[in-house]
Amino acid sequence: MAKADKSEAKGKGDADIAVMSFEDALAELETIVRELEDGRVKLDGAISAYERGARLKAHCEKKLAEAKAKVEKISLGSSGPEGVEPADIG
Fold this sequence. Notes:
By secondary structure, the chain is mainly α. It is built from three helices and two strands. It has helices spanning 3-10, 22-38, 43-72, and strands at 74-77, 80-84. It has a two-stranded antiparallel ribbon. Helix 1 crosses helix 3 (43-72) and helix 2 packs antiparallel against helix 3.
């Protein structure tokens, strides 16, 4: 199976995106972008790849927002960090 075909096949089951790490989602997004830029994907595959890429981008943005909220919730005491409050991200 060619790389372009892999991206197209991955687009059929997006439930996996929800459990992906930020790094894995970003790596796949970068692969999709390279394939689209290189023109290695047929039109239908390109549309599917673009849609999956949009979902991967949203997932990465959510992961970054969660990380930012956690950093902002760190409680600082006189001797440094005392703990982290859970982020309340809707």
